[in-house]
């Protein structure tokens, strides 16, 4: 089975074209080596996947040509224990120290605009 099709079926990427872009961009490695989208994938292969700032290390446990519900898609792979621990640490880090500006929503209020204008004019 093609690796781009498997990544799409396993729900790591929303579309096959996004999976292709990630593979060509070097965000997916098969057994530690860069691959092309048409590379054949076999049960037991190890994949390192970087998608949306999250990094997974998974072992292929099944192949499926069709995109199925998430519960079935999770049965196609097994995440390694160190990958689970790394993702949990990243999640905890994001919770404790959110990115600056992540709490801002929509347009600034009139008061906030005045403060920004005053700050910018001061320099």
UniProtKB/TrEMBL annotation:
Q: Which CDD domains match?
A: S4
Q: Which UniProt keywords apply?
A: DNA-binding, RNA-binding
Query: From start to end residue, where is composition biased (Basic and acidic residues)?
Result: 84-96
Pfam families xref list = S4
Can you give the residue ranges of the RNA-binding S4 domain? 1-67
Q: Where is the composition biased (Basic residues)?
A: 107-116
Q: Where is this region: Disordered?
A: 72-123
Endpoints of the signal sequence: none
What family name appears in the similarity comment? Belongs to the HSP15 family.
Q: What is this protein called?
A: RNA-binding S4 domain-containing protein
Give the species this sequence originates from. Answer: Aromatoleum toluolicum
């Amino acid at each position: 089975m093609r690796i781009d099709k498997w990544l799409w079926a396993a729900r790591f990427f929303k579309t096959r074209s996004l999976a292709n872009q990630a593979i060509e961009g070097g965000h997916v490695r098969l057994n530690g080596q860069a691959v092309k989208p048409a590379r054949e994938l076999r049960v037991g292969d190890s994949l390192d996947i970087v998608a949306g700032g999250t990094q997974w290390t998974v072992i292929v446990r099944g192949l499926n040509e069709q995109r199925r519900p998430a519960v079935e898609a999770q049965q196609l792979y097994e995440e390694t224990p160190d990958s689970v621990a790394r993702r949990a640490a990243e999640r905890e880090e994001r919770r404790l120290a959110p990115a600056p500006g992540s709490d801002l929503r929509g347009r600034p209020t009139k008061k906030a605009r005045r403060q920004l204008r005053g700050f910018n004019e001061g320099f």
